[in-house]
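Notes from hallway chat w/ T.B., transcribed later so I don't forget. T.B. wanted the structure written out for a chain they're using in a teaching module, and asked if we could keep both sequence and structure tokens in one place. Agreed to drop them here.
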Amino acid sequence: MHTLYCVLVLGLGLASALPARAADVFDGLPDPTRPASALGGGGVTTGVHGLVLQSVLIAPQRRLAVINGHTLAVGERIGDATVADIQPHEVVVKRASGELTLRLVPRYVSRSTNATPKPEN
């Protein structure tokens, strides 16, 4: 019984330390699963266009995007923008001023084959 208790306590201690380590790797990245009501929602804004992609649903029969809390399909409008394309990590919207790509996570570009990937500016 004592051995089982020690293993359980050790296991819980290790399990509680792992998330803190894993979080360091993802510092600075937005949480695409965060609810829209929490601190401006998830997703990545591109410039000051006011649209934030928060979620994407890709299924055999439909493709949906959640932008600023509104669930939209291709062809539907939000403000002055029309959803033109929905992909797993990005959505293209069209405005009178041109196309705009909204992304769930930032694009990463490797500067060389030996370099650590860094966020695109």
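Follow-up for T.B.: The first helix runs from residue 2 to 25. Might be a good example for the class.
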